[in-house]
Amino acid sequence: MLHDDLIHGAYATSAPGDRNRSLGRIECETPLLPEVIAEGVWGEACELLRSRLPVSWIQRLADRAETLYVRNARFRRRLQEPGNRGRDWLWAFTRHWLAALIHEHRPHLSNQLPSCFSNGVAISRKYLNSDRPEARGKVASRTRHYSRTPVA
After folding, report:
1. Angstrom distances, CA of residue 136 to CA of 11, 13, 91
2. pTM
């Protein structure tokens, strides 16, 4: 049995190979294809890290989306939003989940991910094609840090 802890509030257990290959609820109720989005996010991360991640993670990400869609009404509503919003939410969640997998199973690669990736933010082509080490490292936070000076 596989047990997936990364589904916040929705645990998935399944035996290897018991996945029914029929369409999932996401595909039936929305125009979204979780496996295609998971493959896109996986490819984006492989290119970003310049390292090949396990291909099995693609199905794991798609299964996570399907499980959460079935068990979490708020997640389901987000994916059913009109226009491209549902698609954008699924891309963001999938990036977040993949960042968690990388952090758990490949911590040496986790440090190379821009911090915005784990927040679901898309990485620009300009960033991906950059050869400068400083452009490939962590993306600086946009928040200002103020230091407190003691008052006498």
Report:
1. 34, 36, 21
2. 0.71
